[in-house]
Amino acid sequence: MARAMFQYTKSVLTKVSFDANLFYKELQKALTQLLPHEIEELRRWLESLINDKPELNDCMILLEA
């Protein structure tokens, strides 16, 4: 079940990546629902996504807490 949530989170974030504000809000929600090891995996996935979409770089501040 937890793995399904991680996959769902990646799917949602990919779909809203066109809008940095919406992406930020969805990322905030995801961080409240994922397990700590999934958050670390999400961080690595986001780094590769941000290479393609640098406008989302500001959202990484959520992961620095």
Task: Note down, in words, how this protein is organized.
- By secondary structure, the chain is mainly α.
- It has a domain at 23-65.
- The chain is built from three helices and no strands.
- The chain has helices spanning 2-15, 20-33, 36-52.
List the topology elements.
Elements lengths: L1 H14 L4 H14 L2 H17 L13
Helix pairs in contact: 1-2, 1-3
Summed up:
It is built from 3 helices and no strands. It has 65 residues and is mainly alpha-helical.
Q: Can you give keywords for this protein?
A:
single chain, 65 residues, mainly alpha, 69% helix
Largest sheet: none
* Helix-residue proportion: 55-70%
Mean pLDDT: 92
* Envelope shape: globular
